[in-house]
Amino acid sequence: MRRTQEDRSNSTRSALMAAARELFAARGYQAVPADEIVRAAGVTRGALYHHYRDKQGLFRAVVESLEMEIMTEIEAAFDAAPDPVSGMMSALDVFLTACLRDDVRQISLTDGPAVLGWTVWRELEAHYGLGVLMRTLEQAIADGLIVAQPVRALAQLVLSAVTEAARMIAAAEDPAATRSDVQQVLGLWFAGLLAGNRAE
Question: Are residue 133 and residue 172 in the same domain, yes or no?
């Protein structure tokens, strides 16, 4: 059975993504030339230009793929929890654990802001995280679990704090210890949002 053009294109993109992700994770964006990626993927340099324009375009696609992968894991953890507050804590645990992975630390958290620029990187973080956070917080407020407050502002601040925690883990000499510290601090902050903890 002959493969269609779409099948060949999908196969080429998958090969480039897989090769780039492995090489970027191992050595970092700057240390990996485009020629090495296309050789590892078994495709031509022209294929890279056709599908991703250039190495930076491929890098952005890898970053977005990682973001979607992590967000899927986060949403699964949240959905499995008995209530929105427990879901937030489970989702935080999954996210911070992902930040310990070599590919996430190097590609998303270290090279991401440097290669894509801080503004674009923040936009990607918001694109994949802000909507989920807003839905989670809206549900928690509707259920009376969190003190009513402006949801978008709260979600943006929570996202900023969690994003900074991720960058702290990526830059740390002891990522596991830093992960433990930021989880404790963020957990206490999130607990302070609970309606039952409101000062009378």
Answer: yes
**Residue 58 resides in a domain:** no
Is the residue at 140 inside a domain? yes
pLDDT for 23: 97
Nearest to 61 by CA among 77, 78, 41, 76: 41
> Do residue 69 and residue 41 come from a single domain?
no
Contacts of 191 (CB under 8 A, 6+ apart): 197
- pLDDT above 70 (res 11): yes
State the Cα–Cα distance between residues 21 and 23, nearest whole angstrom.
Answer: 6
Q: What are the pLDDT digits (tens) for 142-164?
A: 988 888 999 999 999 999 999 99
Q: pTM (2 decimals)?
A: 0.86
Say if residue 156 is in the same domain as residue 183: yes
